[in-house]
Design goal:
By secondary structure, the chain is mostly helical. The chain has 8 helices and no strands. Helix 2 packs parallel to helix 7. It is globular and about 55 Å long. The protein starts with a helix and ends with a helix.
Length: 218
């Protein structure tokens, strides 16, 4: 491996980590808005409200471990262990970054619904931008998306359909947790639905803007 290729790999990992941090900020802003988090974060957030001996970020890590375990069980001998190791490291980094991001914005206060809603929309754009940057890094996938990919490869169902199924599944589980233990919706609300619908379109928007800029430069 020559020096140029090593530099390219290092740059892509740095880009991915920057995207990871921005995405964690998006999740932190969504929790601050109080209108529900993104589907994949809704279960860890709901559990963190119930079981406070671990932080939100640590419950994210716990979900990642489950998602990685599912991949190993499904892929078996076809499992790429190097990728599993990278996923595990990045998942725990993401958990710690989420805790850090929540700490960074701890002093932001919102009370009126319109303030919550604007913060929610901002969180969707921040999260979408972070995910888009991760795609541009193109070196790894977080366990949730990698699990969806693994299930898709084994079952032959489309990746998009698998993702929709699990997004709905996470929201349903969060609703059950909130209604059973809190008698109200906390970890998942209208914001979770808005995030589930809008994030994909926001990523496409950033990609469209990027392609237009590159096209203009050419």
């Amino acid at each position: 491996m020559n020096a140029q290729k090593i530099k390219s790999i290092v740059f892509r990992y740095i880009l991915f980590l920057i995207g990871l941090f921005i995405a964690s900020l998006g999740v932190a802003f969504s929790t601050k808005a109080g209108l529900g988090t993104s589907p994949v974060a809704s279960v860890p957030y709901s559990v963190s409200l119930l079981l406070k001996f671990l932080s939100f970020g640590m419950w994210l890590n716990a979900l990642s471990v489950i998602q990685i375990t599912v991949q190993i069980l499904i892929l078996r001998k076809n499992c790429n262990w190097f990728e599993i190791i990278i996923q595990t490291i990045l998942a725990f980094v993401y958990g710690y970054l989420t805790n850090f991001s929540c700490w960074l914005i701890r002093d932001i206060q919102v009370s009126a619904y319109w303030q919550q809603f604007h913060l929610l929309i901002a969180s969707c754009f921040i999260l979408g931008f972070g995910i888009w940057i991760q795609f541009k890094g193109g070196v790894a996938m977080l366990p949730g998306e990698a699990m969806n990919r693994a299930i898709s490869s084994v079952t032959k169902f489309k990746y998009e359909n698998i993702k929709i199924f699990f997004d709905v599944f996470y929201i349903v589980v969060s609703v059950v947790i909130c209604l059973v233990f809190f008698r109200e919706l906390k970890g998942v609300r209208e914001g979770s639905v808005i995030a589930a619908i809008s994030i994909g379109f926001i990523i496409k928007l950033f990609n469209f803007i990027y392609n237009r800029i590159i096209g203009t430069e050419k």
